[in-house]
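quick one, 503 residues, struct below
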Amino acid sequence: MNVGTSSHSAGHSKPQTIGELKRIPDFDARSSTLPVKNEIRRNLLRAIERGETLFPGVHGYEDSVIPQIVNAVLSRHNFILLGLRGQAKSRILRGLIQLLDPDIPVIAGCEINDNPFRPICRSCRERVAADGDNTPIAWLPRDQRYVEKLATPDVTIADIIGDVDPIRAARGGRDLSDELTIHYGLLPRANRGIFAINELPDLAGKIQVGLFNIMQEGDIQIKGYPLRLPLDILLVFTANPEDYTARGKIITPLKDRIGAEIRTHYPATIQEGMTITSQEAWTKRDSHIKIDVPDYLRQVVEEIAFQAREDKRVDRRSGVSQRLPITTLESVVSSAEQHAARAGETHGVARIADVYAALPAITGKLELEYEGELKGAETIARELIRTAVGRVFTKHFGEVSFQPVIQWFEAGGELKIPDDVPANRRFQQLCQVQCLMEHIAKLGANRKDEAAAAAAAEMILEGLWAHRRVGRSEERGFYAEKPQRLSEPRDRDNPNRPRRTYN
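---
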C-alpha cells in the first residue's frame, strides 16, 4: 500500500518558509494541510479505487475486521480494536501509517507539529505574526506522525497531556500559568497524526477523563491552568474484550466518544494460520545447514494452536496467541538444525520428534484452568500435540488401511529411532516396517530423498499411535498395542486379567 501525495511538487526542492510554500505552482494550502482524519480518508479512498492491498501482512481479516476499519476511517471515527492477545491489533494500528501523506509541512521547531497556516500553540502564533511568510517550516515524514503508548497503571497526566516546566519558566522569566512554560506530553506531540493506546482499560480513570475531554472539546488542564488546544488527531485504542466488558475499566464518557468498536479474532482456518505463521516465523536461517519443514508438519504446528483454543483446560478468556505456532515452528527448525549438525549433515528435514522438542515454546503460551494446572502444562502440551497429529493424519489418509503395518508390530516388531542418527540410517530402520514406505507419497515424500521419506514414515507411525493403532513409549519406541500381551501390572480385582495401559 503506497498512498498519499507529497505536499510539494516533484522536481522542486522542498520549501523552507511559509512564503516559499505558497509560491509553489498549483499549491493548494487547503488540501496540503487537511485535518488528519480527512487526509487518511482521502488516501484510503484512493487506495480502494486503485485496488491496493489494505494492511499488507494482516491475513484472515479481509471479510471481517478490515471492512469495519475502512468504515470507521471513512466515517472519521476514533476506534478501538477488541481482541485477545496475538490477534495483530498493534500491527493493524501501525499499518494506518501508510494511509498518511509521505510528509507534511510544519512550523520548524514546534513541539506539536503546528500547521503553518493554522497554528494552535501560542509560540507559533507569535512567530507567524512576527515573521509572516519568512516563518521557517520543516517537513515531517509519515513515520514520525504515529505515537504509540502502552497503558499501565503508573501512566500520569504529565505523560499523556503535559506538565508545567519550572526550568523553562525560570529561564524565560515567565509565570508558571503562562502557556509557554508547558512541557507537552505524548498526546499533544501527536498533533496532526495518529495517537494509539494499547490496553486502554489499564489506563487510570483520571487519564481517561483527560482523553475524552480533549477528544470532544479540545480542552485540557495542566496544574489547574485551563488551556484550549484543539488538537488534530486520530485516536485509536486496543483492549482485551474481557477487560473491556467484564471489569468495566473504561469510563462511560470515553466509551461513548469512541466512534467504532471492532472485534478481532484468531485465524478461522488452518490455512490462514499457516500463512500468518510462515510470514512471521524465522525459518530461513543464515546457516550452511538447510532445513526443510514439510507441509504436513506445519499443519501439525498450526493445529496445536487450534486445539488449544478449544481445550476446556486452557483459559479461553486469556486466549492462545498466534505467537504459539510462530515460536513453535521456529523451535522445530532449531531442533532439526541441531540434529543435522550433530549428524554432520548440511541438509535436514524436520520431524515430528522436533515438535516434541519445541515443548518450551508451547507451555509458556498456555494459561491453564484449574483442571489443566492439576495435570501440568507439559502434559497438556503433549496431549495437544498428539491430538493435532491425529487430526492431520486423518486429513491426509482418511480411510486408508494400515493393517500390514500394524501386523508387523503385532508379529513382535518394535522400532526405536535415536534422535541423532543420520537420516540414511533412520530411513533404513523405517524400511524394515512392512508396507510403511508405500504410504509416504500422500505426505509429499518419496524414497529418493531419504531424509524426507524417513520424516514422513515417522509421521505415519505417530499418527497410528495418536489413533491408538500402535503403542509408543520412551523405552521401547513403537510397538504393538495389544493388551493381552501385557504382563504387568495386573488388575487388582482380577489378578488373571492384565490391566490395559497406554503410553
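Confidence is low (pLDDT under 50) at residues 7-11, 483-503.
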